[in-house]
Here is the input.
Amino acid sequence: MNESFDRWRPIYIQIIDEIRKKIARRDLHPGEKLPSQRDLALDYGVNPNTVQRVYREMETMGIVETKRGQGTFVVEERSLPERLQHELAREYLEEFMVKMRDLGLGEEVVRTLVESFIGRE
Amino acid sequence: MNESFDRWRPIYIQIIDEIRKKIARRDLHPGEKLPSQRDLALDYGVNPNTVQRVYREMETMGIVETKRGQGTFVVEERSLPERLQHELAREYLEEFMVKMRDLGLGEEVVRTLVESFIGRE
Amino acid sequence: MNESFDRWRPIYIQIIDEIRKKIARRDLHPGEKLPSQRDLALDYGVNPNTVQRVYREMETMGIVETKRGQGTFVVEERSLPERLQHELAREYLEEFMVKMRDLGLGEEVVRTLVESFIGRE
Amino acid sequence: MNESFDRWRPIYIQIIDEIRKKIARRDLHPGEKLPSQRDLALDYGVNPNTVQRVYREMETMGIVETKRGQGTFVVEERSLPERLQHELAREYLEEFMVKMRDLGLGEEVVRTLVESFIGRE
DNA sequence: GTGGTCTAGACCACA
DNA sequence: GTGGTCTAGACCACA
Here is the structure.
């Protein structure tokens, strides 16, 4: 689980995205307990305060809930994995489109490229 | 020009990509002189050896050529910008498709998403 | 400005309430700049991190906005003071009613007491 | 029974209020024996001297009486619970009205808020 | 054991 | 100068 992190994106954001991805991929389920703050901090080699920030932000995002003295859990919401899958897909798509535009490529070109990529396989 | 770099991708690769992008975007033209190794090292806040490696690799890739005593130049090749534009687009597209697949999304879904994204604007 | 704080309510919550009160009382206006994190920390005799948490939470609450490198400002929203005045009044009322209920006093008694209090003056 | 206390109100006052509340709520009755000074000190995690002061002040207030060698007792006065209930209610009401006034809210507004709160339930 | 709060302080990015 | 991130670590509350 121990990866290196980018420099330019805050570590806590990157950890949040890791967890969002796990839920979207159904590797982590609604209602499931997340590691304690201390454990996750050890896993990722970061300070427990950083993990606390991760969990707190995710609470605000409605992804996890914290039960005092018991731990932090993925919220009990059946549609959460699908929701996150959509959100992340959207984000990746947006990033991709921005990069293509930065390269000076218009939407028609992008569409064609995507079509040819899919058709090829 | 001073950006932060990832940790996991070698810095010299990242600098190469920056330069490839500049050419693809027509911010840098075939035949144009690149900054001296020393200057570019200062720009990016890296070791001059790193820049030397950047220029050497790009020479191998047929993107630049070094003229002893004069400096490093983008090769005189009219089609270079378009070529790099295509290569980079291809790379971005692969990255994107990998991420979507990792999310468990098939090609049909991706096609639909791209269509709706383009249609929307 | 330096007061002592309760023990049982987190300091950051108490500072937030102080600021909310100032806005509700029109001592602080929409668009006005708040002290820097460091300054407010000195004013209240707390750690700058605590003030940062205050400002971050208030950002989530839609009360302030932070402009990087410039500082933290009360949001530009004409109706904010009135909104906060209502929210705080609601909170005080709720607290009061809970205390009265805890004392075993029903709503009719409370109504009578309030009436007599107001009538008296 | 172990609660945290404010900082700005003397602890002995807070303990007195706790006991007054218990009598007002009929959790403690006229004639009933209070815990020994030592026991109450342990309950609240305070110094026995503090409890002694609590009992002494409450004696002055006519709420308890100390019988040498036997301990401290709530006074034998049928109307005491009702009396304390009224006194405390009065105190809470004043506090509440002060807070509302501080918020810039007049008595008419307070009346309306109270009415709507009661009506709602 | 688990999260919550808070301090102290380093270092960085934006302007 | 101002906020943003992160670490290290103390101490507390809830269960």
